Amino acid sequence: MDLVISDIEMPIMTGIELVRAIRADNHLSHLPVIALTSLTGESNKEKGLRAGFDLYEFKLDRTRLLDSVNEAFNKRA
């Protein structure tokens, strides 16, 4: 199974733009997508989840990354 892990702040396309493009593509929309970002705060997290991320994790909390990968796969299974 495939998985996308993306930052939010990127030079050419933001993570928000990326996840929206993935969700709009019939061939990709099934993929679990996790945001891994330094942008903290509930408003940033809510914006990411509304845009289509399955999970939104902070880079500083790397211990959750493996749990998040498993959770994202389970959400899309």
Automatic annotation (TrEMBL):
Keywords recorded for this protein, A-Z: Phosphoprotein
Where does the sequence pass through the membrane?
A: none
Top-down, what is the taxonomic lineage of the species of origin?
Answer: unclassified sequences, metagenomes, ecological metagenomes
What positions does the domain Response regulatory occupy? 1-74
- Taken from the record, one Pfam family name reads Response_reg
Report the protein name in the record. Answer: Response regulatory domain-containing protein
InterPro entries in the record? CheY-like_superfamily, Sig_transdc_resp-reg_receiver
Molecular function terms in GO for this entry? Answer: phosphorelay sensor kinase activity
